[in-house]
Structures are given as structure tokens and as C-alpha cells.
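Before a colleague's protein record goes any further, I have to sign it off. Thanks in advance; the entry in question is below:
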Amino acid sequence: EQASFCGGDFWTYGRLDGSRVFLLVGDVTGHGMPAALLTAVARSSLDTMLPLKVALSPSAMLERLNGALYESTKGQLQMTAWLG
């Protein structure tokens, strides 16, 4: 089954500004295409935030990410995430 190769586990890292970097680890509930799609939403939301060059704290970044994910799923899927 092809959907078994899709998943909701991911991690990414990047530079916030001259001296700050971040690491994000996330795991979406469930398996298959729904989890993979929510992972894509999380990644694209994060990628959209980074070029704004706004000094966001890790908690502010997670708060914005949470809002985007909730709007995308209306609470039907959840993601556990750690950002530091």
C-alpha cells in the first residue's frame, strides 16, 4: 500500500538571525496521506514565517504554527512538536 510510505514525522532546522538557529521536531497523529499532508502544511507554514525576519521566540513560532495547523484541520488531526 503506497500510503504506508507517507508519514507525519519530520524535523527541520534553520537560521533565525545572525546568531540564532532553531530545531523543530514534529509528529502528526495517524498515518498515511492525512498525516503527510499536515506535515506539509507545518513545513510550509514554518517556511513562510522565516523570511519575514521578525524576531520570534520559539513559543511565538509554535503559537503561529498551531494556529495554521488548527485552521487547516479544524482540530481533526493533531501534531506534537518541539522547537528550540
Remarks:
- The mean pLDDT is 81.
- Helices lie at 32-49, 58-73.
- The beta strands are 9-15, 21-28, 79-83.
- The longest strand covers residues 21-28.
